[in-house]
Protein backbone atom coordinates (compact mmCIF):
# COMPACT_ATOMS: atom_id res chain seq x y z
CA UNK A 1 0.00 0.00 0.00
CA UNK A 2 1.18 3.55 -0.60
CA UNK A 3 0.71 6.80 1.24
CA UNK A 4 -2.13 8.82 -0.25
CA UNK A 5 -0.18 12.08 -0.55
CA UNK A 6 1.92 11.74 -3.68
CA UNK A 7 4.71 14.08 -2.51
CA UNK A 8 5.02 12.29 0.82
CA UNK A 9 5.05 8.90 -0.91
CA UNK A 10 7.80 10.06 -3.29
CA UNK A 11 9.79 11.48 -0.37
CA UNK A 12 9.74 8.16 1.48
CA UNK A 13 10.39 6.10 -1.66
CA UNK A 14 13.43 8.26 -2.48
CA UNK A 15 14.78 7.71 1.03
CA UNK A 16 14.04 3.99 0.91
CA UNK A 17 15.93 3.80 -2.38
CA UNK A 18 18.85 5.72 -0.90
CA UNK A 19 19.05 3.57 2.22
CA UNK A 20 18.74 0.34 0.22
CA UNK A 21 21.95 0.97 -1.66
CA UNK A 22 25.10 -0.94 -0.67
CA UNK A 23 26.87 2.40 -0.26
CA UNK A 24 24.39 3.36 2.46
CA UNK A 25 25.19 0.14 4.31
CA UNK A 26 28.90 0.96 4.11
CA UNK A 27 28.29 4.50 5.34
CA UNK A 28 26.03 3.29 8.13
CA UNK A 29 28.59 0.71 9.34
CA UNK A 30 31.29 3.39 9.26
CA UNK A 31 29.12 5.68 11.40
CA UNK A 32 28.37 2.81 13.76
CA UNK A 33 32.10 2.19 14.24
CA UNK A 34 32.66 5.87 15.04
CA UNK A 35 29.72 5.77 17.46
CA UNK A 36 31.15 2.76 19.27
CA UNK A 37 34.50 4.55 19.54
CA UNK A 38 32.79 7.65 20.98
CA UNK A 39 31.09 5.52 23.61
CA UNK A 40 34.28 3.60 24.45
CA UNK A 41 36.33 6.79 24.87
CA UNK A 42 33.74 8.83 26.79
CA UNK A 43 35.49 8.23 30.10
CA UNK A 44 38.74 9.60 28.69
CA UNK A 45 37.30 13.08 28.13
CA UNK A 46 38.78 15.76 30.34
CA UNK A 47 36.16 18.51 30.41
CA UNK A 48 32.43 18.83 30.56
CA UNK A 49 32.59 20.74 27.27
CA UNK A 50 34.33 17.78 25.58
CA UNK A 51 31.71 15.45 27.02
CA UNK A 52 28.82 17.56 25.69
CA UNK A 53 30.44 17.83 22.27
CA UNK A 54 31.04 14.08 22.13
CA UNK A 55 27.49 13.37 23.29
CA UNK A 56 26.07 15.58 20.54
CA UNK A 57 28.20 13.82 17.95
CA UNK A 58 27.11 10.43 19.29
CA UNK A 59 23.44 11.40 19.06
CA UNK A 60 23.85 12.42 15.42
CA UNK A 61 25.71 9.19 14.64
CA UNK A 62 23.00 7.15 16.37
CA UNK A 63 20.37 8.92 14.28
CA UNK A 64 22.27 8.07 11.07
CA UNK A 65 22.74 4.44 12.07
CA UNK A 66 19.03 4.02 12.86
CA UNK A 67 17.78 6.21 9.98
CA UNK A 68 16.37 3.35 7.88
CA UNK A 69 14.48 1.88 10.84
CA UNK A 70 13.08 5.29 11.73
CA UNK A 71 11.92 5.78 8.13
CA UNK A 72 10.18 2.42 8.08
CA UNK A 73 8.47 3.11 11.39
CA UNK A 74 7.28 6.55 10.29
CA UNK A 75 6.05 5.22 6.96
CA UNK A 76 4.13 2.39 8.61
CA UNK A 77 2.61 4.83 11.09
CA UNK A 78 1.41 7.13 8.29
CA UNK A 79 -0.02 4.16 6.40
CA UNK A 80 -1.88 2.87 9.44
CA UNK A 81 -3.21 6.34 10.24
CA UNK A 82 -4.50 6.69 6.70
CA UNK A 83 -6.08 3.23 6.78
CA UNK A 84 -7.86 4.12 9.99
CA UNK A 85 -8.96 7.45 8.59
CA UNK A 86 -10.22 6.04 5.30
CA UNK A 87 -11.95 3.08 6.96
CA UNK A 88 -13.87 5.42 9.26
CA UNK A 89 -15.30 7.26 6.25
CA UNK A 90 -16.87 4.14 4.75
List the helices and strands and how they pair.
Elements: H1 6-20, H2 22-40, H3 48-65, H4 67-89
Helix pairs in contact: 1-4, 2-3
Walkthrough of the structure:
The structure is a single chain. The protein is an all-alpha fold. The protein has one domain (8-80). It is 83% helix and 0% strand. It has four helices and no strands. The chain has helices at residues 6-20, 22-40, 48-65, 67-89. It starts with 5 loop residues before the first helix and ends with a helix.
Task: Give the CA-CA distance, first to last residue.
Answer: 18 Å
Name the helicity range: over 70%
Characterize the largest beta sheet: strand count, sense, and whether it forms a barrel. none
Percentage beta strand? under 5%
* Overall mean confidence score, pLDDT: 92
**Number of strand segments:** 0
How large, in whole angstroms, is the Cα Rg?
18 Å
Number of domains: 1
* Number of helices, where a helix is a run of at least 4 consecutive DSSP H or I residues: 4
Class from secondary-structure proportions: mainly alpha
Helix and strand sequence: HHHH
- Rough outline: elongated
Q: Give start-end ranges of low-pLDDT stretches.
A: none
Oligomer: single chain
Quick tags:
mainly alpha; 4 helices
TL;DR of this structure?
By secondary structure, this protein is mainly α.
Amino acid sequence: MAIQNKETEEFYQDLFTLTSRPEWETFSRYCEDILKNKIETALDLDTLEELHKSKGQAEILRMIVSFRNILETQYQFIESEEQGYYHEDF
